[in-house]
Amino acid sequence: MTLGDLFCAKKQLLVYHFMFGPGWGDGCPNCSFWADHFDSVNLHIGQRDTAFAVVSRAPWKEIAPFKKRMAWRFKWVSSFNTDFNLDFNVSFVEELAADIFMDDFSPKFTKAAKQAATVIEGTLYSRYYDVDCATLLSLPEAKPEPTRRSWFGRNREKPANPFAALCIQRADADESKRWDVARNGMVVEQAQILTTHNLALLFGRVGLGETLRSDLRDMSERCFRWICRRQQVKSDKWHAKLIMLKQTAYAWRQMIFYASLLAPEVRQAFIVWAEGHLHEQPSDFRARFAPALRGLVLANEGRSLDKSTDPRRFLG
User: Fold this and answer.
1) What's the whole-model pTM score?
2) Continuous H helices in the chain
3) What pLDDT is attached to residue 146?
4) Coil, strand or helix: which one is 155?
């Protein structure tokens, strides 16, 4: 089926991107809520010379039984093994597991990073994480290529695309330790930073920026409050501490992205509030986390974090 076929001889086409990836089993619950209303709305849309279709990345053999179980009748097609999502700039990058990462990223990571650069260029986010947006925008489009792997599965060749090479460089990753989970986790984290972990796509292409503009200050504060609470949860287990660090680094990155979209005076007010909120925390946590907040202050002033050992970037 082609894109033209979805028009069904009508002049306009509405496409809903239903979150249902390969191997999920079931579709997204929130998308399912909206899909329960599609069949009734579809009748009215059709009377206005407009066709309607739903697209998901899962293969049809996985979509069909779910659609039947939900008793939906609307047109639903699969974009599995096609470039449809990339062509329409709505291909979200997924979470990658460091223990199976092989020093490479699919082409959509390059596209997501280039889209992110158009949103974060010249912002607090790019200054804090030292993102060279010109470099991202100049990345050649990556093409999936087969790579030669060793007998235990690790890639022994150079990264297949420049985006992967850039992430490895930013992570200062040791080329001789491609099997190391901690090393691979740092590379994956750099990919999340450069793609904003889908935030730029949501706020740019999808249009959440205007919808949430008046809530960004509150969202930033909520992130910081949660980080302070989560960082102080006591645990003797190593894995629990690792998860805490990873989750709070995610929230910190989201907070900086939201703050980057604030007007300068509002952002400054938020940082002053954050300093006050940190001052209210127990002294041991305050001393431990203060350098991260000082790094944010420095970046907001347009200064580099690399010229001082005290203010630092908070990474997972």
Assistant:
1) 0.70
2) 3-6, 29-35, 38-46, 60-70, 84-87, 107-120, 124-128, 133-137, 162-170, 181-195, 199-203, 208-211, 216-231, 238-260, 264-279, 283-300
3) 45
4) strand
